[in-house]
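Final report, closing paragraph on structural work. Over the funding period we assembled a curated collection of sequence-structure pairs, and we close with a single example.
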Amino acid sequence: MKNLKITVNGVAYDVQVEEVGSDSAPAASSAPAPAAPKAPAAPAAPKAPVAGETVNSPMPGTVLDVQIKPGDYVKSGDTLLILEAMKMENAIAAPKDGKVVEVYVIKGQTVESGTALVTIG
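Its predicted structure, as stored:
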C-alpha cells in the first residue's frame, strides 16, 4: 500500500493506494474513474457600501431568505431577510423607513457577525 498526497482545487488529501493484480497483467477497468467533486463556487466579493444606512449581520449564520430587492421601499420594522443562527431563524428588520439601495447577500450565503447585508437610503 502506498500513501500519497493529492491536491485537488487547492485542497490537499492524504490517500492510500493499493496495487491490485499481478505485475505482468495490469488490472483493467471497464468503468471510467469517477470525476472529482466540484468545489463550491466562491461567494462574490463584497461590494463597497453605498450612501445610506447599512444593516449589518448581528451574528454569524446562514441567509435563509431575502425578502427585499434593490428599489423596494420598506418601513421601520419590516423584515429584510431571515438569518439562521444556532438552528434558530432570526428576522432581520429594517432600522428605518426608506428605499433599499443595495442587497449584499444571497439566499444560502454564510455570513459573519458584522457583515454588510443591506443598505437603506
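The chain has a mean pLDDT of 82. The first strand starts at residue 2 and ends at 8. We thank the funder for supporting this effort.
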